[in-house]
Amino acid sequence: MCSIMFLPAAILILLFVDFVLSVCIIFILNLIFVRPLSKNVYKRIKGLASDMGVCLAWQTLFSRVKIELITDNETYELLGKESAILIANHRHALDHTIVMLVNQFFGSSSNTLTLSKNSIKYYPFYGWVSWLSNRVIFLERDWKKDAMKLKTAIGVVKRSYRPWWFIVFAEGTRLTPQKLLEAQEYAISQGLHVPRNVLIPRTKGFVSIVKYSREHFHVVYDLTLVVPPGCPPLTLKNVLKGEKTTINIYIKRFLMKHLPESDEDVAMWCRERFCDKDAFLDQYMVKGISECQVSRTIHNKKHIHVAGAWAFLLLQISVLVYYLYLSRI
C-alpha cells in the first residue's frame, strides 16, 4: 500500500483540513440546492463525499495503523452484507474512526449510524462533518428528545435497501484511570461485576435501538478493540507523527432472534457482553492472540476514491495558484 507519510506533517494536515472544510461546503450546498430537487441524487453526493473523506484519511493519516480483525470465517464473510448493530468498548481516542474504516472496507461509511454526546458536534472539523453528514445521533441526555431522534434515524434505515451498521459505544465515554475508578466504586455500591478493563455500559440507547429495529437489524456484532502490549497508543498525536501501531478487533456475531424480548433482559444481555470483554481483556494482556485464532489485516481498497480526493485538492490548488500569481502576469 502506498503511503504518503513522507510529506511534511504540517502540509499533510493543512491539505486534510482543506479537504474536510470543502466536504462541509459540499454538504451544505448539496442540502440547499440538490435535496429539494432529488433526494436520491442528494444521498449519492453525500455518500460519495463521505467515502472520499474516509478513504483519504485512511490512505494518509492512518496509513501506518495496522487494523487486524479476529473472527471466524462465517462472520468475516458476512461483514458488510447484513444490517447489524455493533456494540464496542472504548479504550482509545480514535476507536470510532477505526470502526468507520472497517465499515468503509466492507461497504460504505455513508451507511452508518452512531451515537455521540451532544458536545461533539461543536468540535472543529470532526464535529462539523459529523453533524452535516446526518449520520451521527447527538444525545442530549434528555430521553424524550433522544428517543425521538433514534426513531427518526431508524426510520431512514428501514426505508433503505442497503445494509447498515448502527455503531454503539455503550460505555458512553472513553476508558481512563479516573473513570475506571468511578465505575468500580459504582459497581461495588450496586453489587455489580467490578470491571478492570472496561466501564459499566449505559444500556438505555442499545435497548431502544433493539426495541425499535428488531425486524431490520438481524444481527448484533460484539466488537472488542485493543492495542497489543508494546505498541504505541492509538492517539491523534501518534497518528499525526506517523507512529506505526496496531489495533486488534475481536468480533463475535449474535443473531437478533436469540436476544431476550424484554427491555430489562436486553439491558442485562448488554452488561453480560461487557463482563465477557472484561474477562477476555484480562487474558489478552497475558497471552495475546491465540494460535487457533485467524487474524486478517485490512487496508483501504477504494483507491479510486483517494484519487478523486487528490484530484479535487489539486484542482483547488491550481485555481488558487492561478488567481494569486498567473492572473497578475
From TrEMBL:
The Gene Ontology biological process terms listed for this entry are: CDP-diacylglycerol biosynthetic process
Please name the InterPro entries in this protein's record: Acyltransf_C (IPR032098), Plipid/glycerol_acylTrfase (IPR002123)
The catalytic activity, as recorded, is: a 1-acyl-sn-glycero-3-phosphate + an acyl-CoA = a 1,2-diacyl-sn-glycero-3-phosphate + CoA
Q: Which UniProt keywords apply?
A: Acyltransferase, Membrane, Transferase, Transmembrane, Transmembrane helix
Regions that span the bilayer: 6-34, 304-325
Query: Which Gene Ontology cellular component terms are annotated?
Result: endomembrane system
Give the EC number(s) listed in the UniProt record.
Answer: 2.3.1.51
Q: Which Pfam families match?
A: Acyltransf_C (PF16076), Acyltransferase (PF01553)
Q: Which GO terms describe its molecular function?
A: 1-acylglycerol-3-phosphate O-acyltransferase activity
Pathway listed for it? Phospholipid metabolism; CDP-diacylglycerol biosynthesis; CDP-diacylglycerol from sn-glycerol 3-phosphate: step 2/3; Lipid metabolism
Domain Phospholipid/glycerol acyltransferase: residue ranges: 84-207
Xref: PANTHER family: 1-ACYLGLYCEROL-3-PHOSPHATE ACYLTRANSFERASE-RELATED, 1-ACYLGLYCEROL-3-PHOSPHATE O-ACYLTRANSFERASE
For this chain, the family text in UniProt reads:
Belongs to the 1-acyl-sn-glycerol-3-phosphate acyltransferase family.
List the protein's name. 1-acylglycerol-3-phosphate O-acyltransferase
* Organism encoding this protein: Artemisia annua (Sweet wormwood)
